[in-house]
Amino acid sequence: MNALFVTSVEPYSGKTAVCLALGKQLQAKGKVVGYLKPMSTQPWRTPQGSLGDEDTGFVRRALGLESPESPVIVTRETLHERLSGGFQGMLLDQIKEAAESAGRDVDLLLLEGGASLREGYAMGLSNIRLAEALGAPVLVLVRCHQEMQIADDALAARYRLGDQLLGVILNHVPDRTGEFLDQIARPFLEKEGVRVLGALPQRPRLSALSVGELKELLEAEVLSENYDPEALIETFTIGAMTAEAALARFRRQKNKAVITGGDRSDIQLAALETSTAALILTGNLQPSPIIIQQADSLGVPVLLVQTETMETVNLIEQVYSRTRLGQPEKLEAFMKLMEDHVDTGAIFASLGLG
User: Fold this and answer.
1) Residue 47: its pLDDT value, please?
2) Are 34 and 67 in contact (CB under 8 A)?
3) Is the pTM of this model over 0.85?
4) Are the beta carbons of 249 and 237 closer than 8 angstroms?
5) What is the pLDDT of residues 133-188, one digit of tens each?
6) Measured between alpha carbons, how far is 314 from 192 in angstroms, rounded to an integer?
7) Residue limits of CATH 3.40.1390.20 in the chain
8) Is the CB of residue 125 less than 8 Å from the CB of residue 38?
9) Among 108, 16, 54, residue whose Cα is nearest residue 347
10) With contact defined as beta carbons under 8 Å apart, do 82 and 122 qualify?
11) pLDDT score for 327
12) Residue ranges matching CATH 3.40.50.300 in the chain
């Protein structure tokens, strides 16, 4: 079985997106790709009513695969049973069996690991143990925040994984950090035995939520005639100040959604004077007809939600960093970033697919 184990130092670092991009590149070369997420810690209900994993469903659709479901789906009940002494040895056997099946007759099996290098120890299924048991080299994603953190996280991956580490991809790299990476961090890490396979620049458009995703998340009612579910929202701002202060802030933000009370016509009009992708009106308060008329003339969707402003913000924050590449525009943009900034040729060559 030829496999690649993709994991990250911290959650929401782009594992699913990288698996999808690598899979699509290989398919374009005429290779047969498989995909498996050995363990899921975020169970969800499939349309058929059974437990499944959201990432698996997304990749399956995007790559046109009949990938098996995650063999181990961790719920509160399975965690408690494991901690009480259950499942001894069973879970790893289930994963090995699923991997053997998914890896049969494919050129490469993409294994999407846990959300971080800390995840899975309680279940006896750490990323390190899984990769070793499945005989797969490990590609680690490091999300960039600060200069020292980048070096520390990459080195931590090296020390934990040892020779299993194929290399790291740095993700969400701010433009201001590029020079540091090229001139200082990359040479240092390479000297320390960490192979840096690429650095993906930060692109707010890729972490954007679509208007359709927002409507579904907030269970919102669409009040305007103009509603494009594929339109993307890059930033969110709360309109809870004076109209004059709001207008100054709104002018500095592009492709934003403004969250404000349905009774704040002054804030709503200020938002519509600037680059606004959507108005989210909270508290189930109907806006003035003038607002709807103005929004329709500008093509801005107006969403009415039942929740109050801070509850609405909390709901959005819970999913904002987890947005997927479901829109063709986002998928194409990420594929281009991978082609331009990641040495996928080196990755494939290391796997015997060059």
Assistant:
1) 67
2) yes
3) no
4) yes
5) 999 999 999 999 999 999 999 999 999 999 999 999 999 999 899 899 999 999 99
6) 41
7) 209-320
8) yes
9) 108
10) yes
11) 64
12) 3-204+324-350
What is the rounded distance in angstroms from the CA atom of residue 228 to the CA atom of residue 213?
11
- Whole-number Å distance between alpha carbons of 354 and 343: 12
Element at 153 (helix H, strand E): helix 147-161
Please give the C-alpha separations between residue 267 and each of 127, 178, 214, 279, 292, in angstroms, as whole numbers: 48, 38, 20, 10, 14
| The pLDDT value given to residue 210 | 84
- Interior angle at CA 136, CA 135 and CA 141, nearest 5: 150
The 10 Å Cβ neighbour count of residue 2 is: 14
Query: How far apart are alpha carbons 60 and 248 in whole angstroms?
Result: 45
Beta strands in the chain (DSSP E): 3-8, 33-36, 39-40, 43-45, 51-53, 72-73, 108-112, 138-143, 165-173, 196-201, 209-210, 221-222, 232-233, 235-238, 256-261, 276-282, 302-304
Q: What is the CATH number of domain 209-320?
A: 3.40.1390.20
Per-residue confidence (pLDDT) for residue 324, from 0 to 100: 62
Report d(CA 346, CA 131) in Å as an integer. 20
Over 80: is that where the pLDDT of 6 sits? yes
- Kindly report, residue by residue over 21-59, the tens digit of the pLDDT: 999 999 999 999 999 999 998 887 766 777 888 788 888
pLDDT of residue 325: 65
CATH topology of domain 3-204+324-350: Rossmann fold (3.40.50)
Supply the DSSP symbol for 38.
S
Q: Taking the CB of residue 274, how many other CB atoms lie within 10 A of it?
A: 17
When pLDDT is averaged across residues 84-109 and rounded to a whole number, the result is 91
Report, in angstroms and rounded to the nearest whole number, the Rg of the chain calculated over CA atoms.
Answer: 23
